[in-house]
UniProtKB/TrEMBL annotation:
The keyword Transmembrane helix applies. This is Sodium:proton antiporter. Pfam families: Na_H_Exchanger. The chain crosses the membrane at residues 6-24, 31-51, 57-74, 86-106, 152-172, 184-205, 274-295, 307-328, 340-366.
Length: 497
């Protein structure tokens, strides 16, 4: 029961964060989620019902599906092309950062060398979910963005292996290099082999169902949503990297989606919608938990000289990681000065510093993207003109008054400017008047078909002239296609008795 209550509180907080992000559009939803998470701690009735943090549950139920869906939007072919750089950044760079950060903490803070390396191992993996926070409203250069994305997908396994090595060093007093290397190859390589084979079997199974009479849209969607959870825990059970497993499985499913989009369009579309919803909620939940845990730790910590030491350790780890990544970008990846700083600051994660510092620095390093406010104003103008053209085409058609009135009301709703009072009046009309006859339904459908053709033609013209708003126009085009699926369907002619 307590788990259910805790989950409900966190998801509710995530939903509130997403709504508030629409109100405060200039602030990343991740920052808002962290603030909401902090507020939960100070509300007794909510804070006391949030369960104690469990890393296994957190990684398995939130991080694993996020990485799976992140992998799914990445082409397997692109990973193959960047394999050399992926290995460099997820293995060699992680090791370099850990060594430099470990010795840096040991020298400055005076802690034991094994403990310093444990802290360094924790600080080296990059965070795939942090990029949106620090680049909100900015354009990330393609090359640097590709490196950061690929790195954040695959380097968690390296960090976990190195962390285990440092912990064993701390406990036993020595490093077993052979065991560490063996664990790395078994964990990473085993995760890759297991995930590709298991994911491919699941893909084939789903494809066979799609082509059979036993296919069920809801059951297929459930299988797809459960895939990252099943693969992660199965991989961990056989002692290979669950993180690597879900990422690679996502890559396999990316190729599947590209080649089976039209075999069952409603099912594929539902899958995209589910992924979008789960990713948005889980990503927000991730930062709600982060804000809650950070506030809890601070409130329970009694500030002493030891606290200042830990703050100094955090600063040291962050600065060493940033400088190591900068030098690696300059010397190994042949980046120029600006690109190296983008790569260095991109995702060197030590929670608060990793969010605040890049957010400020990127304002000077990256070009501004089209702001949401500017895009909203322009798209609103396009939407209004699009609807007016559709209504003009309907007015020119010969239609019964009740059908024409109904179609025009629905088209006007596309402008998203109809008042609630108008909706209430239309709702009352629907309740009071009988359903359209079969002939009227067909005329309504044809009126919508004609209107949507006019809207698509207008948007097609606009997309070629308004290049910087092209993606927003395509989203509007997609809305029309979805609207068309709602109003176009088989009609039944009215039987005359």
């Amino acid at each position: 029961m307590s788990l259910m209550v805790s989950t409900f509180i966190l998801i509710l907080a995530s939903v509130v964060s997403i709504f508030l992000a629409q109100v405060f559009s200039k602030i990343s939803v991740n920052y808002i989620s962290m603030i909401i998470g902090a507020l939960i701690f100070f509300i007794p009735i909510m804070g006391k019902n949030v369960m104690t943090f469990n890393s296994d549950i957190f990684i398995g139920l939130i991080v694993a599906p996020l990485l799976f869906f992140e992998g799914q939007v990445t082409r397997l072919n692109a990973v193959g092309k960047e394999l050399k750089h992926i290995i460099q950044t997820t293995v060699f760079l992680v090791v370099i950062c850990m060594i430099l950060a470990g010795f840096g903490v040991w020298e400055i803070a005076g802690v034991s060398l094994p403990l310093a390396f444990i802290l360094a191992a924790i600080s080296t993996p990059t965070d795939a979910t942090a990029m949106e926070s620090v680049t909100n409203g900015l354009k990330m250069p393609k090359n640097e963005g590709t490196f950061l994305k690929m790195e954040s997908l695959f380097n968690d396994a390296s960090g976990i292996i190195l962390l285990n090595m440092a912990i064993l060093w701390y406990i036993n007093g020595y490093i077993n290099y052979g065991e560490t290397l063996g664990d790395f190859f078994i964990s990473a390589g085993g995760g890759v082999l297991f995930s590709f084979s298991a994911a491919w079997i699941m893909v084939l199974f789903r494809q066979i169902l799609l082509r059979s009479s036993y296919n069920s849209l809801n059951a297929q969607s459930l299988i797809y949503i459960l895939t990252p959870f099943v693969l992660y825990y199965a991989a961990e059970e056989i002692h290979v990297s669950g993180i690597i497993a879900v990422v690679c499985a996502g890559l396999v499913h990316n190729a599947e989606a590209q080649r089976s989009r039209l075999i069952n369009a409603p099912q594929v579309h539902l899958g995209f919608d589910l992924v979008s919803m789960i990713t948005e909620i889980f990503n927000s939940t991730f930062f709600v938990i982060l804000g809650y845990m950070f506030t809890k730790i601070i409130s329970e910590e009694k500030f002493t000289n030891a606290s200042l030491t830990w703050i100094m350790i955090g600063l040291t780890l962050y600065l060493v990681n940033v400088l190591a990544r900068y030098l690696y970008g300059r010397l190994r990846l042949d980046f120029n000065n600006k690109s190296s700083w983008i790569f260095a600051l991109g995702e060197s994660v030590l929670i608060i510093l990793s969010l605040i510092v890049p957010t400020i620095a990127f304002r000077f390093l990256l070009k501004k993207d089209v702001t949401d406010d500017d895009a909203e104003k322009e798209v609103d103008k396009i939407r209004v003109e699009m609807v007016h053209r559709a209504i003009d085409s309907v007015n020119k058609m010969y239609l019964p008054d009740n059908v024409k009135k109904s179609v025009i009301f629905d088209l006007m709703a596309q402008k998203q400017r109809t008042r609630t009072r108008a909706f209430v009046k239309a709702w009352v009309d629907v309740v009071r008047h009988p359903e359209f006859t079969g002939a009227e339904k067909e005329l309504e459908m044809r009126a919508f078909m004609n209107a949507f053709v006019q809207e698509r033609e207008y948007l097609d013209m606009i997309s070629q002239s308004e290049i910087k708003y092209q993606n927003y126009v395509f989203e509007l085009y997609n809305e029309i296609l979805l609207a068309e699926t709602l109003v176009i369907g088989p009609t039944v002619s009215e039987d005359e008795e």
